[in-house]
Design brief:
rod-shaped, 21 helices, five-stranded antiparallel β-sheet, 19 strands
């Protein structure tokens, strides 16, 4: 064999060896890859799936819809509107810190402050950037496609009637939990229960697919309140006008349905708008009609006379000698504006005789007088359940001195809330039954508790009608076409060191129509300024205006039409 042929043969063998080596390498590599794939797919599958889930599967909450609050006729007082909250995973967002100013601009946040919040939260996986955004604005944020940025559907409370019902309805915090008013009292009923779901997310943290429902949300239940929004607007408007006219410190109006005990209207001044969180302060949002107490002054006199008649020592026609126009009890001299002489119980009410009321109170046994006040609800909470309600103040008769019993006759030595006084007057309208008050619409009226005879209640209603007639202290509370029964009250305010002689509560409490009472209302004006401060001059006109429109709105038939108008009324009501 020639030298050249031998060289070619060796070269061919070397080439074949290299090819075999390469083929062997690829076979071994393919075998290794196949073995690794089998190991991963078969023996290590569960571990890898968990790792993938850790990186791409997330659990998200599903916000629950809070129940609505409506008035008794279904008008919305509090509703939940959908909003979006933007949150971030700071670790993921850190890869795009150069775009944080762009994010801050859309969210209307300071870029430096936002950057500091993000960098301080690098150990967290969840950070709210801004809560309760308009969904359109949240969509703009998501359109930036920043890593780690997500949006969450939530609900924000909105109050259509604003400040008109603010004190009664209350408000929720940013997490939709009730903080005041009906929102707090019935939070367990209104609040829903958050659900959860498992979602698949891409590398930017955006939800790609809903994988599974873990727990469905339970939405809150609606609450139908006892309030009639028509009467609420009316009371609000009238009270606000009176507060401005008399430059008063504050005021309250409460209207009750006598037949059921439901609160049809409850307003206060000053008020606040629950849609504006900048107005949230205890001084503004507390419900004065339920939380604040005052000494009722002469508005307590119908209760004193009720105690007298129920004692058996007095009758509706009894007379009381008020001469010489004053009475001295211990160190205190109690007087009337003039010597009224011998007067009837009706005159004691219509002319608001302090001497007459004092003599009646002093003639009764202390325990009997105390028990009567207790039966009327003084010194104890009503059944409203409203957060922060005051029980008022009624000291036990064992702690009374003679002067305490005497001043109780004309409304001192006892403190009540406007709601308590309204409940007490409603008992006169329901023929001696006192019913639990309710802030929720009732399908059936609660049974009342008898606290006085029906004859006693009817007699006192007739006496209180004289208060509203011309010549009575409450003539400004009259309503054209209706018989009205009520009582004025004016009490000094207590201040450090004793009673102030230039600060007053002006009060009127009453019923209408007196022949068959449907509504009881109380008006309180705190610290009216100027020449007018008596209850008959300040509070009584508010009662008259509110009651005039309320009776009309509720289509209550008049009971005091002039002669010749009965036929016209019947024809109008039949159309």
């Amino acid at each position: 064999m020639s030298r050249g042929a031998e060289t070619k043969k060796q070269t061919a063998r070397k080439f074949a060896g290299r090819v075999s080596l390469v083929i062997a390498f690829f076979v071994l590599s393919a075998s290794a890859l196949f073995a690794r794939a089998v190991h991963l797919q078969v023996f290590n599958k569960e571990f890898l799936n968990k790792q993938a889930d850790t990186r791409h599967l997330r659990t998200e909450k599903i916000s629950a819809h809070r129940g609505a609050i409506t008035d008794r006729n279904g008008e919305p007082l509090a509703i939940s509107t959908p909003v979006d909250s933007v949150w971030a995973n700071p670790k993921e967002l850190a890869s795009a810190v150069d775009r944080v100013p762009e994010l801050a601009r859309i969210l209307d946040l300071d870029p430096e402050l936002l950057m500091r919040r993000i960098t301080r939260s690098m150990d967290k996986e969840f950070l709210y950037l801004k809560r309760h955004l308009n969904p359109e604005l949240a969509h703009q944020v998501m359109a930036l496609k920043l890593p780690g940025i997500n949006s969450l559907r939530e609900y924000r409370r909105y109050y259509p009637a604003g400040e008109v019902t603010g004190h009664l309805v209350g408000f929720t915090n940013i997490d939709d939990d009730g903080q005041e008013g009906l929102e707090l009292e019935f939070n367990h009923w209104l609040a829903g229960e958050t659900g959860s779901k498992r979602v698949l997310k891409d590398r930017l943290g955006r939800s790609v697919e809903n994988v599974a429902s873990i727990k469905p949300p339970r939405h809150g239940k609606d609450l139908r309140s006892s309030i009639d929004l028509r009467l609420q607007y009316l009371a609000y408007r009238t009270l606000k006008s009176a507060i401005q006219k008399h430059k008063a410190e504050s005021g309250s109006v409460v209207i009750l349905d006598i037949e059921t005990g439901e609160v049809l209207a409850m307003v206060n001044q000053p008020t606040y708008n629950p849609n504006d969180r900048s107005q949230f302060s205890a001084e503004r949002y507390r419900n004065r009609a339920i939380t604040d107490i005052f000494e009722p002054g002469s508005s307590i006199k119908p209760l004193i006379i009720a105690a007298a008649i129920e004692s058996g020592r007095y009758r509706a026609g009894s007379m009381v000698d008020t001469s010489p126009g004053y009475v001295v009890v211990g160190p205190k001299r109690i007087k009337d504006s003039r010597n009224l002489g011998r007067v009837s119980l009706t005159t004691i009410l219509s002319l608001s005789s302090n001497v007459g009321a004092t003599k009646i109170a002093m003639s009764l046994e202390p325990d009997q007088l105390w028990q009567t006040m207790t039966k009327f609800g003084f010194g104890s909470l009503t059944s409203s359940g409203f957060p922060g309600e005051s029980a008022g103040l009624l000291t036990h008769y064992n702690d009374w001195r003679k002067v305490n019993q005497a001043t109780l006759g004309y409304g001192y030595n006892v403190s009540v809330t406007p709601l308590q006084l309204a409940q007490a007057y409603a008992a006169f309208g329901s023929d001696g039954l006192i019913r639990p008050v309710s802030l929720v619409r009732l399908d059936q009226a609660n049974e009342g508790e008898r606290i006085m005879g029906s004859d006693t209640a009817a007699s006192i209603r007739l006496m209180m009608e004289d208060v509203v007639r011309p010549g009575g202290t409450g003539s400004e509370a009259g309503v054209v076409g209706y018989r009205v029964a009520g009582k004025t009250g004016t009490s000094w305010k207590y201040s450090a060191g004793g009673y102030s002689e230039d600060k007053y509560f002006s009060i009127f409490a009453g019923l209408a129509p007196a022949s068959d009472p449907k509504l009881a209302a109380v008006v309180i004006i705190d610290e009216p300024t100027g020449d007018l401060y008596y209850g008959g001059d300040v509070a009584a006109p508010v009662f008259g205006e509110v009651m005039t429109e309320s009776l009309r709105l509720m289509a209550v038939p008049p009971d005091a039409l002039p002669a010749g108008h009965d036929g016209a009324l019947a024809q109008a009501m039949s159309q």
